[in-house]
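Example: Dihydrofolate synthetase.
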Amino acid sequence: MTGGTIKLGLERIQQVLKCLSNPHLKIPIIHVAGTNGKGSVCAYESEILRRSGLKVGRFTSPFLIDPTDSINLNGDNIDRETFEETKTEINKIAQSNQLELTSFELLTAIAFEIFAKPRFELDLAVIEVGLGGERDSTNVCETGNTLASCITPISIDHQAFLGSTVSEIAFQKAGIAKPNVPILLAQQSFPEVRDIVRTRASAESCDLLEVRPYPVPQSSIEPLPPLPLTPWDGQLSVSSSSPKTVPNLLSWSAGFQHQNAATAATLAHLLRTHHHPLKLLPSLSEKITDQAIIEGIKNTRWQGRLELAEYKGSQLLLDGAHNGASAKLLGDHINSLDRPITLIIALSSPRDPGELIEALDLGRLSWPTQIITTNFSIPEDMAWVRPVSPDLIASHIRPHTTQSTADSPVIKVTSTPLEALNHAISIPRTPDELIVICGSLYLISDVLRIIDNKEHMSHVE
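Written out as structure tokens, the predicted fold is:
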């Protein structure tokens, strides 16, 4: 049986995995934690590894349309039949052992069991942490099958579960450190993150490396800047005969995705040069080429993150930005477009609307901005998820707006994503106007279902 609550801890997931003969230990994995960008890094890294000729599993969350979205086998989501068969098997085991798994624990167990199935012949899997790190149900693998750990930018998020300060949150996320497994740390905005991760890495005898800042080329013909691994305090030298570079041929145009791409490229270089992953999977040194990195990053697609879509002839930009840090990056991107914007926004409780609106900094836009607040559907088996009232969001937006007319109000409050979309396309607009949808992946999920005409929400039970 499963429950619709968040219960951090490893006891239940470890028990059910033991009953399944420990599938999580049967395949090499890369473990990725962080607040922002971890899903994007997983997407980039998986594609790089696929372009290297490896068969790659990928587990990410939350799913957008259907639970099968979370489990990817070499570029394709798991088929419904295999998913349902595996879910039924694990539910029976949980019931017979009186284990009340959470929905995420069940989904995690399904992923590990599928990745270990011999018929899929996977070489490795990229695993995204669900919440935090140390007590997350993905944190069950061991040194013997973990190739590397990666921590993307950390900021304030999920305080009710991880702590109220960046240091407390960083401590939880750095809990994915495993003895002697190298950790790659992405560029961080808060200096205390580096100190916390360094301490936890040292306690586990982990080599700790950082992603260096680098200039982003402006065209595909410019030379690419070197991107070598940067050892912490010089305790590790990882190099090769030629500079390793991050490609600029990105399918995602926002500058902040260059940083996620840089993290994935550096992680790929770590995998092909560091002694620990090479001990577990020696073929990485030859398979991961510069060309594989370039092709992987150029061809990555990641649904719901800077995703362009169309609805009734209007262009949409969907992005799951939901906290201050990610909203600032999205705001930077919107500002760089220099085109009229209609913004549709919903938030999950207890997120602070003021923090997100302030981070978006809509006042800097050179075009008048229409803003529509709305709700989202409550995902089944996730009873703790609640949308912030659209009226409350609107009340936080008003101090940041200066333009309004009776015929075309800056702010419109709606009850559903469908109403919000239909209102957005009804507003008189210029041909280049863009509808930006953000604030919650649950809102993105609803919008994608509307576009696909999917009326019912799929769920794990």
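The mean pLDDT is 84.
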